[in-house]
């Protein structure tokens, strides 16, 4: 299998999961340190990054399946992130077209629906190069009609665990800076959540058996209230929890403020039934209470 983002937060655990059950893994490595990390696990490193389209094509053409987890996540320049993601999906899809091989694409839940939890049958509204993630989810699914077993995994807004540097870590950093663990407005918004180990197992199951055109939801907890998240962070850090006005959220939290003021929730009922996936890792509030985000 060829894996992009192979040494990232989700990718490194997904590689461990794949290797543990006997899959051979080639991981895209943009540095010598990344290459050494992969090789120490028993994987093979392929030099390159998400902008190296030739490397993406070579790795994809030689693999029996591709797991695309890399993303620039440049929140200061979303247009560049979207461009790079779309170009990468085109490179991978074109290399796999007509070969009946699997292509699992990482996607997200932001903006899929509003006012209710998303379900797997909800199509992403992001279409075209100027849309969120460059419309990569819908672009990838087009290759299902071109002889590629495309599987989309939409990850919860927090894929949590010890040493996470994602959105919850940003909330923790804001709490340290301000001496208060804040939530937006009345804190009634909510996020879905999944532990990193459960996300990695879902990736493996999806690669192994999900049918072409599947949308899977890496969601263990459907809706964790924002206020509960802030209060758990406050207890872990020994600071009070308090509200911040919606118009002040971005100034208080940074880029994550806008998302923390949104409900980003989803069901994974269909995913569990399709793959027999049953999350077993710690819940988000359990992870926070256990100190996963308490250390500098």
What does this structure look like?
InterPro entries: Epimerase_deHydtase, NAD(P)-bd_dom_sf, NAD(P)-dependent_oxidoreduct. Pfam families: Epimerase. This is SDR family oxidoreductase. The chain is of the alpha/beta class. It folds into two domains: 2-156 and 194-219, Rossmann fold (3-Layer(aba) Sandwich); 159-193 and 222-265 and 280-289, no CATH class. Helices cover 40% and strands 19% of the residues. It is built from twelve helices and twelve strands. It has helices at residues 9-20, 32-41, 53-61, 78-96, 136-142, 167-178, 196-209, 226-237, 249-253, 256-260, 269-275, 284-289; strands spanning 2-4, 26-29, 44-47, 65-68, 102-108, 149-155, 158-160, 181-184, 190-195, 214-218, 221-225, 241-244. The strands form three sheets. The protein has a seven-stranded parallel sheet with strand order 3-2-1-4-5-6-10, with helices on both faces. The chain has a three-stranded mixed sheet with strand order 7-9-11. The longest helix is centred in the first third of the chain and has 19 residues, at 78-96. The two termini are 35 Å apart.
């Amino acid at each position: 299998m060829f894996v992009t983002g192979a040494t990232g937060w989700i990718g490194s655990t997904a590689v461990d999961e794949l290797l543990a059950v006997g899959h051979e893994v080639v991981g895209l490595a943009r540095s010598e340190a990344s290459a050494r990390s992969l090789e120490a696990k028993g994987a093979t490193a392929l030099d390159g990054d998400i902008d190296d389209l030739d490397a993406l094509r070579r790795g994809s053409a030689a693999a029996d399946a591709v797991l695309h987890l890399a993303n620039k996540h440049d929140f200061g320049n979303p247009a560049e992130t979207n461009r790079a993601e779309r170009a990468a999906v085109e490179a991978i899809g074109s290399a796999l077209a007509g070969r009946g091989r699997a292509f699992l694409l990482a996607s997200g839940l932001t903006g899929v629906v509003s006012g209710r939890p998303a379900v797997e049958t909800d199509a992403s509204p992001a279409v075209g190069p100027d849309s969120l993630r460059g419309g990569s989810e819908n672009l990838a699914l087009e290759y299902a009609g071109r002889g590629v077993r495309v599987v989309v995994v939409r990850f919860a807004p927090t894929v949590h665990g010890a040493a996470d540097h994602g959105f919850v870590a940003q909330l923790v950093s804001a709490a340290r800076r301000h001496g208060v663990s804040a939530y937006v407005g009345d804190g009634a918004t909510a996020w879905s959540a999944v532990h990193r180990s459960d996300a990695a197992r879902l990736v493996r199951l999806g690669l192994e058996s999900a049918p072409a055109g599947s949308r899977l939801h890496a969601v263990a907890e459907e809706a964790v209230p924002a206020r509960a998240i802030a209060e758990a962070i406050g207890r872990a850090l020994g600071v009070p929890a308090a509200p911040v006005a919606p118009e002040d959220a971005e100034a208080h939290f940074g880029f994550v403020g806008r998302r923390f003021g949104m409900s980003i929730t989803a069901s994974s009922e269909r995913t569990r039934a399709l793959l027999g996936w049953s999350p077993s890792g710690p819940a988000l509030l359990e992870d926070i209470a256990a100190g996963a985000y308490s250390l500098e």
